[in-house]
Write a structure and sequence with these properties.
Blueprint: E1 17-24, E2 28-31, H1 32-35, H2 43-50, E3 54-57, H3 64-79, E4 88-92, H4 103-111, E5 117-121, H5 127-140, E6 146-154, H6 164-167, E7 172-180, E8 187-195, E9 203-204, E10 227-228, H7 230-252, E11 259-264, H8 269-279, H9 290-293, H10 298-311, E12 319-326, E13 330-337
Parallel strand pairs: 4-5, 4-6, 11-12
Antiparallel strand pairs: 1-7, 2-3, 6-7, 8-13, 9-10, 12-13
Length: about 350
Amino acid sequence: MKKSPRARHSQPNRTVSIVGTGSYVPEKILTNAELERLVETSDEWITSRTGIRERRIAAPGEHTSHMAARAAERAMEQAGITAEQIDLIIVGTVTPDTAFPSTACHVQRILGAKNAACFDLSAACSGFLYAVEVAQQFIANHTYETVLVIGADKLSSIVDWGDRNTCVLFGDGAGAAILRYRAGSHGVITTFMASDGNFGDILHMPGGGCAIPITKDNVDEKLNTLKMNGRETFKQAVLSMGSAATKALEQAGLTTDDLTCIIPHQANMRIIEALADRLEIPLEKFHVNLDRYGNTSAAAVAIALDEANREGRFKVGDYILLVVFGGGLTYASSVIQW
């Protein structure tokens, strides 16, 4: 008599590791000097307040799915897997190609990942870490073996280029990771996630959904572009990321002294400096690239992770901390043993 396979719930949970990373940014560079010709601002004003010197802007016809697929291909190459081995694709984004089908389905088509289930996840700048935690659950519980997680956004498509308080901050890009069980490695130790919808209006896009559809009567109000309360966003970013990082470390049973590298959301250098001070961690331990890319939303921490990985900022066995904040408000932190 043929033995029946064990039910998933009867199998012990597995650890989950990131076995490959990849990223992509568009070729076009938009400098602060070029922005001076668009809005009333200056390179000195932008750099001193944000730390951003330039950002990447997607080419005409280059969509979120295109950037996501390019990042995914690089992660797959590093992990040594083929598209057909991918069981699940999760894309964290707030700028999907289309409301439906999902951007993940568009990525599946581009990659030829015919065996993958696909869906998008919306958590703004926190989307990549939220997606990593969701992916971990599927692998730990034996539902899937190989999950592709992508953070990708084309924020240039929803920026009001006449608003100097927001248009100087954002850029386009994508970052990706391949997650799998890897024997002998702990991988993602813990992820702390939280949200507070009471602060939903400090960073949001009010129009374009079912609540406020864009019509000929309101199109001039630019309701389908980013709106931000800068002062409150700064305050909540520092508080929430500090809280998330502390709780993730506590859950992991580690301290800041155990960390080799911290990869924060790349939004504003002043936020990162305040976070470093709050956590009492030397700024040198933080990997920062916002001066070159600006805030790429869900892609930001994923791009920085890939960059730090390829630069050798950490090695196998090292502990790293990823911490993010986004509209919603949403925030999260992951402790990973590489």
